[in-house]
Structure formats: C-alpha cells, structure tokens
TrEMBL record:
This is Glutamyl-tRNA(Gln) amidotransferase subunit A. It comes from Jannaschia rubra. Its EC number is 6.3.5.7. The active site is at 52 (charge relay system), 132 (charge relay system), 156 (acyl-ester intermediate). Residues 1-449 form the Amidase domain. One of its GO terms (molecular function) is glutaminyl-tRNA synthase (glutamine-hydrolyzing) activity. One of its GO terms (biological process) is translation.
Amino acid sequence: TDAHLEAVETAGALNAFVHRTPEIAREQARAADARLKGGDTPAMCGIPIGVKDLFCTRGVPSQAGSRILEGFRPEYESTVTTRLFEAGSVMLGKLNMDEFAMGSSNETSVYGDAVNPWRATGSDAPLTPGGSSGGSASAVAARLCLGALGTDTGGSIRQPAAFTGTVGIKPTYGRVSRWGIVAFASSLDQAGPMTRTVRDAAIMLGAMAGHDPKDSTSADVAVPDFEAMLTGDIRGQVIGIPGEYRMEGMPAEIDTLWQQGIEMLRDAGAETRDISLPHTKYALPAYYVIAPAEASSNLARYDGVRFGHRAKLAPGDGITEMYEKTRAEGFGPEVQRRVMVGTYVLSAGFYDAYYNRARQVRALIKRDFDEAFAAGVDAILTPATPSAAFPLGAMADADPIRMYLNDVFTVTVNLAGLPGVAVPAGLDDDGLPLGLQLIGRPWEEGALLNVARCLE
Ligand code: GLN
C-alpha cells in the first residue's frame, strides 16, 4: 500500500487519480494485515485498487467527472465497493473519467484529460488513455494500482483497456450490481475490473459479482470460481469470426492483429469458424439513440436542489431559472448534447421513429448473437478498437460522430447484454498496444476469460 501510494504521488502528470484517499488506504491495509495474521485470506486481501469516480464512496467525493456534482460526498457506499472492501481491497482513491461516462478519450472530464502512460511526455502530443474509464486504464498501465474499477455502457472498459495494454471485462448485464453507481444508460451500464492480467480480472470480478436485492436488474445467478476456470484448455471450442467486423477503411495493422489472434486460438486447439452477425452495422446508430434517451431521463435529477452544484441566481430569478442556469453551468457540452438528443428521441412526435425503432434494432442484434451461440459458437473474436490510442486533442474540433466511431466494435455487446473482454494482443508499428475483444455467452465469464488467457 505504501509503495502504491508513493507511486500515485509521483504520477500526478498522468492525472489518473482525482481524489486520493491515503488515510482510508492505510486503515484498510492495517485491517487486511490483521485478517492475514488471523488466518483469514479473502480474495482481494490487501490489494491496492483505484475506483472510477462514477462509484459512490462514503464520505469521499464522487463527482462522475462532472461539475454538477461538485462537493457531493455520498452517505452510502456502492454495492461493488462494499464487496471489494469486504474482500480485503485497499482503496487508493478515485479515478478520472469522462463526464458521466460519456466519451471515448477522457477529454470531457471536469478534472481535465487523463494521460496514457505509453506516451505521456516528449515532443509528440501525449496520448489519450481512452474513455470513459481513462483514469482507471492509465492507473493500471502505469502500475499505480493492481486493479481498478471501470464501468462500460458502450465500451468504456474495453476501449481504454485496449489503448493501454491492460485487460478489461464487461460482465453479462445483471452480473454486477449497479446500486450506488451513478447511472448513465441503465439498460446498458455494467461495472467491471481493469487489471494487468486475465487472472487478476478473474479474481477481482469474482469479488465484485453476485445478486444484490438493491438492484432490481441484478440477476440471481451463482458466481463460480472464475480463477479456477482458467485451465488454459480450449481444445474443441468453436470461436466465431464475424465478417461484419471487417470494416471498410480498417487499418491493416488491426486486421493483422486479428489474424494473429485467430492463429493463436487455433494453435491452442480451438476451431475457428466464419460467422455472420448481419445487424452489426445498425448497432452504433441504435446505441446513440438508446444511450442518450436513458441518459436524458437519468440526468433529470441534477436540478440544483438535490445534489452538488447550484448556480448563483439574480434577483427575480425563479425556480425555472435556477434549473436552467444550474444545468447550463454544471453540464459540459457532450453531456448537454446527449440530453438534447435523448429528449428529442423520446418526445411524443419522434418516439416511434427513433426510440422504438432503435429498440427493435437492439432485439435483432441480440438475435444475431443468440443464433451464433445456438449454432455451437462458444465465443466470438473481434478487434477491440478500430485504431490504437490517438493523441489528446486530435478529435477536439471534429464532428462528434468521429469520436463515436471508436465504439463500433464494442456497443453491440452492451446492446445484447453479453460479456465482453479486451485483452492486450500486440503492438502497432509505433509500438503502441492493441487489443482484441472476445464476446461470450451470457453468464459464461469464466469460460470467456479462459479463452482470453490464450491470447495473453
Ligand atoms: N464512448 C461511449 C459513449 O460515449 C461509451 C461510454 C461508456 O461505455 N460509458 O457513450
């Protein structure tokens, strides 16, 4: 714990940790020592972790990367952090992220950009660690903590993992409780671990997962020993290779990486099979209707009354001005864009044309996966991202849709509620990490991580 606290102190330039909690860490470390001495060795005993700022942590600032939650210190602890603490984890602090988890570069954060340790200094512009869990990825890659909590609504664990050479898994929807996590798009959000190795991800996921009566969408499904499932034996398994993920304009190095992954799994004794997921091309547009729709509803609670920031009012201002000024000051431009889009697609005149249509597309995307699994496919291998990490600022003035294209390989998995893991799989021509994604059957995170292990 002391070594990691020191590392956090000296790595300020990465802007990964936005609130440090050394007192809590030392107290938890002492408690872990006492448990070890007493012969009690829970899975995460004494393991220093970082927590994405989206999780409510009791008495500790929890701002979701937003100005509107300035000064908010929850009186309660999220289920996931509660479980990790019970399992002996040590919290070093809270991690940077895109505002309300909306973004793919950590540039929408009120705390400023998090930086990718693979290129943080030098004459070339520093690189993004990805987003929205950019601080989590940066911290794990820079060895500031042994594991970090991320959340993934459309790729926010897997894309930053791919950009930083770390492992990140988005579990099956319902595997991990969402209670006490600031909501973005409730039907898509899942929390998951970001770690250096697949084995660490298995251990940390096991400590987080399980049914929680406080989250009505959390599933009452037994949590197996994920670590014990990492036998490395994948002989006879069928790995689907979806043609629709071979996208036009995809850089050759991504294609090469994918091919290498296919060969590694074959060498390990798996059979690879070309499959079709025909509705893939509609996933991104459907996601960028459904996610903003749910976000516009979830973010209605930030009204200047209940949480955090409230704008200074002028004489004569009424409650409407208070809402308007508070939300205009408190939300950044990307969040405002999502609220506007979401409100529009849910409005009476457009609900059927956009929101209902997107929900129908979502059902078709899920059916594509169901059919592949029913035909005997055990897991699906795709690239995790369409490129390696890009320089901070490179997309600042671009059309927002260019940023949204980062999620092209990951959003399908959230729309279908499936588990997906990003594994570091190689380096590009500039020596930057690239990741592959494996998508699994519902509730089969253990089997999925076992395949992922073969790519490490
Ligand atoms: N980049 C995507 C978005 O901006 C995904 C974010 C996430 O998974 N939280 O919505």
